[in-house]
Design a protein that fits this description.
Helices cover 51% and strands 16% of the residues. With 415 residues, the protein is an alpha+beta fold. It folds into 2 domains: 194 residues, no CATH class; 128 residues.
């Protein structure tokens, strides 16, 4: 039966090649588009999950209103000309020791890093630049993020040495016109600006971070802020990042602090990933559907053209199921061959795209090439889609051929 199927395919070479081209293009397109998009997503997911806390506990920002002061006994006799407004006080974690004990005893927490996040102004001569200063334990901060691999000068742990040392983003450094080992002034808005020596430079590839962020030790940031022993954030890593949202929701029910999981803080990026997946699958399905219609039409025409052969085969003792198998095998063979060629072509396209030079650190590798995913599941899904499409589009013509009766074909003068 397989021999007859192959003979039918080779007897209509042009039609067979057209079907193959459709399947190959659909399969290769799925592999290439998936490899590019999933590579891009893998890069961003690595930055989202491994470059920052899985859960961030931040000081809640409370604003003053007329109702905020109603708890005082004299409040009933107070009539405001101008209602109180603004933030109550500087942000801080109200009871950090309690959080430290809770996080230490939680089996899902791998480690945590107390931090001070400050909005500051960097100053060098007449150049000023607003930005953010993050104060933390440098050794824990290295474990919390990938900052160590982004260092392009100096060592991140050098900020642990006493004496106001900072590690600064490359673009921020360029904007200030400064250089390594130079001292700049940093102001938090409270008190006089303080000198900080630049002991390291990093480049993450994210412009928002590189042009506005610097790191210092926790004690130096607390001193600049004028609030020793206070912290504004606790960055937490847990065993399973996928469970960060559920863990954050559990903690929210028993705390006044602002608690955000990485899924919540990156919701807009994750929604972009879903949109990309929808676009990727839609494009591939469209190509496969067109190829499926081609298979259906060509096999239907083939059944009509081979009515005489079907009559002969039935007269020789072939059963209707054998005839169905004959035409079904043709679609299956085209799906297997077209799918395999499509996988190879898709892999070659992915390999070529991986050679494309782009700006280092953005969506590419450290060597400045595009990140392409070669996840084996891409190839498994592509092959399954190719086989599924060809099987589905071959069933109807094959069943039509199986219903043909020899006497009906002879009476109708079929060829």
């Amino acid at each position: 039966m397989m021999f007859l199927s192959l003979k039918h395919l080779f007897s209509r070479k042009k039609q067979s090649i057209l079907i193959l081209v459709g399947i190959v293009i659909g399969t290769a397109a799925y592999v290439a588009i998936s490899g590019m998009m999933l590579g891009f997503q893998t890069k961003l997911m690595d930055q989202l999950v491994n470059n920052d806390a899985h859960i961030r506990i931040s000081a809640r920002e409370e604003l003053l209103t007329k109702e905020s002061l109603n708890s005082f006994s004299e409040a009933a006799h107070v009539f405001w000309t101008i209602a109180p407004s603004g933030r109550k006080d500087s942000e801080k974690i109200e009871y950090p020791i309690g959080w430290f004990n809770k996080l230490t005893n939680d089996p899902d927490v791998t480690f945590f890093v107390p931090q001070v996040n400050l909005n500051v102004i960097f100053n060098r001569n007449r150049v000023t630049q607003s930005g953010r200063l993050i104060g933390s334990d440098p050794i824990k901060q290295e474990k919390m993020s990938n900052i160590k691999q982004y260092m392009i000068a100096g060592k991140f742990t050098d900020i642990s040495n006493s004496g106001n040392h900072i590690v600064i983003g490359k673009i921020l450094l360029e904007k200030l016109g400064s250089r390594l080992s130079e001292t700049i002034l940093i102001s938090s808005g409270k008190g006089a600006p303080q000198p900080f020596k630049i002991v390291g430079i990093f480049e993450t590839g994210s412009r928002n971070i590189d042009e506005s962020t610097a790191f210092s030790s926790l004690s130096d940031s607390q001193k600049l802020r004028g609030t020793p022993s206070e912290i504004t954030d606790i960055a937490v890593k847990i065993l399973n990042p996928e469970e960060a949202k559920e863990k954050a929701n559990t903690w929210k029910s028993s705390s006044k602090e602002k608690i955000l999981s990485w899924q919540e803080s990156s919701a807009s990026i994750l929604s972009v990933f879903k949109t990309q997946d929808i676009v990727r699958n839609s494009m591939t399905i469209s190509i496969i559907v067109v190829a499926s219609f081609g298979i259906y039409n060509i096999l239907s025409i083939l059944v009509t053209q081979k009515r005489r052969d079907v009559a002969i085969l039935r007269s020789m003792g072939f059963t209707p199921s054998d005839i169905v198998q004959l035409f079904f095998n043709q679609g299956l063979l085209l799906g297997i061959v077209g799918g395999l060629i499509g996988l190879v072509l898709g892999a070659v396209i992915c390999w070529l795209m991986g050679k494309i030079q782009i700006e280092p650190g953005r969506i590419g590798t450290s060597s400045g090439r595009m990140i392409i995913s070669f996840d084996y599941m891409i190839y498994v899904k592509a092959f399954a889609i190719a086989i599924g499409a060809t099987v589905f589009s071959s069933i109807l013509p094959a069943r039509l051929a199986g219903k043909l009766e020899p006497m009906d074909i002879i009476r109708s003068g079929g060829q």
